């Protein structure tokens, strides 16, 4: 991984930690609605750290946790409990920012609910940090071993089928850089 990507991983990890500390501060001041927002932000940013580590490029400016997890194929490794937490956390980003949404979708926030949110955020964030650390420690040869793949293209998405996983891309992604970086070889059918 180039030093610029290491700096990006560190940036996203540090801001994830900062947002988690802010969630804790919001809990102490009984600003419960913002606890959910900051927990969402913390998980979004640790997903983006994982993105930088895994794909070695700058993450897209999207805020949907499930889409971020899917884009880096992290959702395949998440437990059912973790996926449920992400799905519960997802609307908290919108509820805190858009009062009209909050009126249409009232949600009761209290101290116990927010303490649980912070606990689950810490658990998921720590797990992703461990995954990032594990992937960083893989040998360069193992991480960049040539892959065989098939590349499908449409106006809406691009998909790579490889021996290891399926990765979907959107038109704004630079697929040629991805292929070159991972030293992929073409073949005609999925493995």
Account of the protein in words:
By secondary structure, the chain is α+β, with helices and mostly antiparallel strands. It is built from eight helices and four strands, in the order H-H-H-H-H-H-H-E-E-E-H-E.
Instruction: Report, as a whole number of angstroms, the end-to-end distance.
Output: 27 Å
How many beta strands in the DSSP annotation?
Answer: 4
- State the strand order across the main sheet: 3-2-1-4
Strand-pairing-aware structural class: alpha+beta
Q: What overall geometry do the principal axes of the alpha carbons give?
A: globular
Mean pLDDT: 76
User: Beta-strand level of the residues, as a percent range?
Assistant: 5-15%
Helix amount, in percent? Answer: 55-70%
**Helix count, per DSSP?**
8
Element pattern in H and E? HHHHHHHEEEHE
Biggest sheet overview? 4 strands, mixed
Instruction: Tell me the Rg in angstroms.
Output: 18 Å
Low-confidence stretches: 143-157, 183-191
């Amino acid at each position: 991984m180039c030093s610029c990507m290491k700096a990006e991983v560190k940036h996203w990890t540090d801001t994830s930690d900062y947002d988690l500390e802010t969630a804790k501060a919001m809990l102490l001041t009984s600003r419960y609605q913002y606890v959910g927002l900051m927990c969402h932000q913390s998980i979004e940013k640790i997903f983006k750290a994982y993105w930088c580590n895994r794909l070695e490029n700058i993450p897209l400016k999207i805020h949907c946790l499930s889409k971020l997890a899917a884009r880096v194929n992290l959702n395949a490794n998440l437990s059912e409990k973790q996926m449920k937490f992400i799905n519960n956390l997802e609307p908290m980003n919108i509820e805190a920012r858009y009062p009209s949404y909050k009126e249409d979708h009232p949600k009761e926030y209290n101290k116990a609910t927010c303490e649980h949110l912070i606990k689950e955020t810490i658990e998921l964030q720590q797990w992703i940090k461990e995954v990032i650390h594990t992937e960083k420690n893989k040998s360069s040869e193992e991480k960049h071993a040539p892959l065989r793949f098939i590349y499908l293209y449409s106006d809406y998405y691009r998909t790579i089928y490889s021996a290891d996983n399926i990765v979907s891309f959107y038109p704004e992604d630079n697929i040629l850089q991805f292929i070159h970086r991972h030293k992929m070889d073409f073949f005609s059918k999925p493995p």
